[in-house]
DNA sequence: AATGAATGAGACTTCATTCAT
DNA sequence: CATGAATGAAGTCTCATTCAT
């Protein structure tokens, strides 16, 4: 979804330039479909612009230019600039969570799941390099969305940890501490990403020894 | 252009003087003292404004109003708004590092030092609630300063960890991994602070069980 | 006077740095002399600054920096910035007129005097490259002074032309036309200077054929 | 403020569009036409403001007020204030050249052409009294445009003079001197205009004896 | 008098939002 | 609805002048 800007635009253009096309499947789009396409294009454009220039430089003019629509059109889809920015992380964040879930679904143990999730996070970032700024600048520019996202991710961690704790696999036994551990893992991932996972756009593969360090701490610090 | 003028003036400035060597009581401050006072007031005002409203709303007008000086005065002390913002974290960051160093200097072991440092960080935040935003929004608004600060903090961690590793106290043995561990600790602290350390201005005492969770992971995950 | 900035500054510095100097002649200057020195330094500085950056960029700060005095000092000598700018052309303009008069005083005929004056103007500009802007930008930035200067120069021309006319040496006979001719000569000189007389600072020698063209027109167009 | 602007604009628009016209096609202007109108209004406003107050006082606010548009609108048409100022002389200068060409096209000889051109210049100034400052202050405020304009005008003179020289009608025979002569004519015209052609706004008719003086010099000084 | 920092009015420019077509 | 130009509030920075030392 993050990199669909071009496709979306291309799609629209094609339609316009050749109204008599006999394309069997893509006949004229309905109104609703067109609207949905534009909305999607605006999201994709916003993602790209925020990813490249940050929230603070994500001007409406830039987003609409990127989406190949007029500036005024923006306000047919969003109440305000902030409205779109508030929706950006939820939209893209869901995709990330789904991606990670999918990638870690076949784990044999909680520890393995953690490693797979960890790797998947960086895999996702490699595919969607815009996500880093969309996620981490949201604390400043879309705080509500950020907090929700954070809580959702934390809940995921806590659920897993809880299961492990109930099986007696954890070094901690205080239920309250589970969320603290979750936050620590999230923070650790954030900083490793910041430091080792972002060499320019297009990303870079995370060094294997970073994964080693992370898993060493996870295995020894959290699990027995 | 402006710079030429400034340089010329700076060159002429005789900053030495102090002919009134022993005037200890003097109600009136010397010019240099006044200047220093205003500079400090601007920094303090900026810290407060950034802490309360964030970098993105730290307008020059707000800062100067807070410091009770005219807007133009600002530019006698800083090249530009960004110039001040760039200096803010270094200035306050130093104070934090000094505070933590002082608080953890009497630790008997590396692990104890880590706990004392961890607690001191939150102590510092309680005293300087503005610091949270000054530090963490800097990634967006003063990236260079942020990176420097981050590296300085990381270096501190690495130094400690290295010592421990050389004594065979660590679970990892790859020197490269030390920095990864440092980043993880920093990230963990950041997120714990975000989640548990900031209930409104004035801060809140960190729950003891958060410290427990943190130290459990540190002890089991990093140290043998 | 135009190039005394350095000297003036050196003078002050020397005095300051070695109050016990036994220099036999330059003992302490009187108050009045000091004032006169500063005023001269400000004029010289203004000339240099205007010559290099134009009136519109001749900020008080630049002028005082160039003169090595404090900004506030400026207002002990001039009512306002405009006040100095208004006095600049009269001051330097007098020097130019004197220079030209001196250079053309030994002419055997009016035509020869004109050639000598013409050459002397460019000679003066070579020595004082700042003069071009001081003079010609004054039309915009010190219009009153400009007009006065212009009239003074025109009067000089008219006086000469009148003499020639009375001797029947001119092609025109209407007294009113004398001033028109004077203005034409001034305009011609201005434009030749603009086009041929100013290659960078330091000036350039006027090509001889430009003088030829000028004198051809003067000889054939004005004199019989 | 918004209201004022709107009303003002509405007023202008209505007036311009001529509701009583039988406009066969369309009462309302197309968008492109409106844009062109605003651009023209901005140029006209700039010309008036510069003519009255000079480049140095031609603030964006003044220009837009004069054009009855909002300040922000300015930047839909020009990159910056300087951008407009740079375009002003080329725009108006072309009009002047066309005017003069038209007025002197039916001349029987080069000398006559020169007289007609000379008169036409002042005619143009009478119609466009703003042109004087637009042209002559450009040396300071839009130097590039000024130089281009100057060169264009000089080329025109040189072309005419060259023709005459080839026919042996000139007193000079050195091709290089042609441009010098052109500059002299331009300077002469400038100064005559400054001294005799601008009594307040609305201009004044140039005294006939000024034309006589000019033509006497041209005929005797340049042509045989 | 000299100093040089403080002042604040004022200029330019940006950009989210509105609105007429 | 889409369009894209118009709007004007708001923010940054400059610089002549003032003023306390």
From TrEMBL, chains A, B, C, D:
One of its GO terms (molecular function) is DNA binding. Residues 59-78 bind DNA. Keywords: DNA-binding. Residues 1-17 have a biased composition (Basic and acidic residues). Residues 36-96 form the HTH tetR-type domain. Pfam families: TetR_N (PF00440). It comes from the Bacteria. This is TetR family transcriptional regulator. InterPro entries: Homeodomain-like_sf, HTH-type_Tx_Regulator, HTH_TetR, Tet_transcr_reg_TetR-rel_C_sf. Gene3D superfamilies: Homeodomain-like, Tetracycline Repressor, domain 2. Residues 1-33 are annotated as: Disordered.
